[in-house]
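As a warm-up, study this chain.
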Amino acid sequence: MQRQPATYVRARLQMKTYRSVSRLEPSVGRLRRAPASISKMALALVMLIGAVLGCGSSNPGLDRILDARDKHAASEALRDHGSVKAEEVQYIYEATSSSSENRRRNAAHLLITTVKGNAVELQHKALLETRDVVVWAILLDDLLEKEPELAGKRPEMIKAALDQKDSDTLAVGLRAGALSNYPGVRELARKYLDHADGKVRAAAVSGLLPDDVRELLPRLTDMIGKEQDEDTFILLAKSLIRTNDPNATEVVIKAIEHLKETRDTLYLHFFNDLALFTPPDPVITKFMFTLVRGKSTIRDEGFSVFSRWVWSVKRDPDPAFVRICIEEINQGNLSTDPRRRPEAKSEQNACEEMLSFMNDGKNPIGDFEGRVRGKDAVAFAEKWLKEHGG
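Now compare it with the structure written out below.
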């Protein structure tokens, strides 16, 4: 499940100031000389009423999304409305506690489409407040990979999710249970490996222990080899990697090698997800080192991910990978000419893109001529390692 504009129409109380006219009877004149404090009190009361009315106002554009009866209607309404604005976030958050089940669940889906204003703060707040397990699952699913510590914050919701027939909610419950060592989750994981929904099967893998992985290896190999849905494949592959079991890692590598061999672009989506959308994770990093130090046919993708972690998502360079790059370039083409022949291998190009960004901070894709290459890249890398204790 991954984040997706009419401005609030606030009802305003129209205030009119009536001027006293000369035809008023003299006996009424003293009212016009009433203390100023009374006038101020009246104005304050009017403003308070206006604020109350404003808070209770509706937003027709958002309401059409929030009250949609199905995903298609919600999608159409969101397309017409446009992306959520910062000033609309509070209204959406309040809808997550609506008495209408449909409205609060649509609100949860809508809230995770934006980071504008204080959307993320309100998402966390709703996650801890909601009594609706589906709302909890929608909000947690969006946060779980970035903040796994949230998994065990509400064990009562894990229990409720594991009893759900809704596949999306059940899958989140399994993942949260695995991350928080919820009692009985291992047994449930084995049970749900045969579930009809791929998301549930992939989530179940995350609850397996190393002993389970070794026992179920043929079955897991078959699962990942047959998976065609992009999101499910990515979740399944990452779940296997995160078991931190060498056998599971080998299963993933062989499955991705097969995808590359058959020209199935699913493997490219997997590596793009690791490079651009997966938060720092020591187990994923270990997997990438397994790739770049190995001899698999997807070794170059490991170099690409390490490189993009630096120049695209701005992570700190890993000294161990910088050393690997020095060795790779020394074994390749040491020419500094942008049009060198023979062309450098993909692994060397990925290293030089990263080192170029480390050198001048410029996006290497848009600065082809200015990249450091060959022996210049090696010299820069060695200098960087000395300066950074590598």
